[in-house]
Design goal:
The protein has 375 residues and is of the alpha/beta class. The protein folds into two domains: 146 residues, Cytidine Deaminase, domain 2, CATH 3.40.140; 215 residues, Dihydrofolate Reductase, subunit A (3-Layer(aba) Sandwich). 27% of the residues lie in helices and 25% in strands. The strands form three sheets. It has a nine-stranded mixed sheet. It has a five-stranded mixed sheet with strand order 2-1-3-4-5, with helices on both faces. The relative contact order is 0.12.
């Protein structure tokens, strides 16, 4: 049963699964190699069903959402329905399998949004539950759950992170001005929306041109969310990023991951390491250029599940041409850049084939259109 057959689900099932999916978003990007899963334990009360246990995958990936929810529910879990956004695990790792825990606690029904692509699970969690006499139904709001876990599913299924390209394009089709550093394209409200996008991803990535020209911090500066700043990835084959860059300021988040060529100068490498950079050497062509496929493969090996690519123009173009962008977040503003503008690789009229608009939003005079790959 797939998400496209949602009409077969009761309104109660859809309502509680939607709540479990919203809950799963709380720790997205903070659960290590595991996905952020949401779980609810629901009992039929005297009137309407009531939630007796809530759980979301904890920081670092343990404990799993089901165990958290069952612990909160206690004895009330017996005879209840569990709503879980991902198939309960069946393999023994650092904790007992969640499928066994659901059996032990006596739930009578388990509703699952999406089955687990992990070969260690792959339907075995469902089998354990059914063999114990528990009613299992899968596919409730599957599309929505898979979207919430896009990074995990991409890493497990394709060996690379889910990649979002964010571009802010001026009214005259530019993303900046040559030699001018950061040029405001959108207003403060739209820039805050970008900060939230950073919170939702495990890494922010830019090319060395952006790192040198703009000297960005690439962190999250929303009050109360400063600790949610993701890993910052700089594509810098010859390590041209200055050691004095603001990326290495003490007040900024500590992790800067730099992707360098074996052709990079050793003195530059040592200087950046002294500033705290985590430098990974990857294969390059004779000019020191990286294959975008190799970049994402390396980030996948590291365990990053979702990456927000913020520029610049040439870096964005290379990932687009390689067919590696999964989502485009296109901000448009009414500002004019004018002379010496850097042309955007895309605009509303030049979105590559295979993408469709899935969401629009307005932030004052600015507009956001989100596109996702369909083929």
């Amino acid at each position: 049963m797939s998400g496209g057959q949602s009409a077969e689900w009761t309104e109660t099932d859809r309502r509680f699964m939607a709540a479990a999916i919203r809950l799963s978003l709380w720790n997205r990007g903070l659960t290590g190699e595991n996905p952020s899963v949401g779980a609810l334990i629901v009992r039929q009360g005297a009137g309407d069903p009531v939630i007796v246990g809530r759980g979301v995958t904890a920081f670092g990936g343990r404990p799993h959402a089901e165990l958290v929810a069952l612990r909160e529910a206690g004895e009330a879990a017996r005879g209840a329905t569990a709503y879980v956004t991902l198939e309960p695990c069946s393999h023994i790792g650092k904790a007992p399998p969640c499928a066994d825990a659901l059996v032990s606690c006596g739930v009578s029904r388990v509703v699952i949004a999406a089955l687990d692509p992990d070969k260690r699970v792959a339907g075995r969690g469902v089998s354990i539950l059914r063999q114990a006499g528990i009613e299992v139904a899968s596919g409730c709001l599957e599309d929505e759950a898979r979207h919430a876990m896009a990074g995990f599913l991409s890493l497990k299924g394709r060996g690379r992170p889910w990649l979002t390209l964010k571009m802010a394009v001026s009214a005259d089709g530019m993303i900046g001005r040559s030699g001018a550093g950061q040029v405001p394209i959108t207003g403060e409200t739209a820039r805050r929306a970008v900060q939230m996008m950073r919170v939702e991803h495990e890494a922010i990535m830019v090319g060395v041109g952006t790192a040198v020209a703009d000297d960005p911090l690439l962190n999250v500066r929303l009050p109360g969310l400063e600790t949610r700043s993701p890993t910052r990835v700089i594509i810098d084959p010859f390590l041209r990023t200055p050691p004095a860059s603001r990326l290495f300021d003490d007040a900024a988040p500590p992790r800067v991951l730099m992707l360098a060529s074996a052709k990079a100068d050793r003195r530059r490498l040592d200087a950046l390491k002294e500033r705290g950079a985590d430098i990974r050497t990857i294969g390059s062509d004779y000019k020191g250029r990286f294959d975008p496929v190799e970049i994402l493969r390396v980030l996948g090996v590291i365990g990053l599940k979702s990456v927000l690519l913020e520029g610049g123009a040439e870096t964005a173009r290379r990932f687009l041409d390689a067919g590696l962008v999964d989502r485009i977040a296109l901000f448009t503003g009414d500002a004019q850049v004018g002379t010496d503008g850097i042309a955007s690789p895309i605009n509303e009229n030049s979105i590559p084939p295979g993408f469709e608009a899935v969401r629009t939003a307005s932030y004052g005079k600015d507009r956001l259109i989100e596109y996702e790959r369909t083929s």
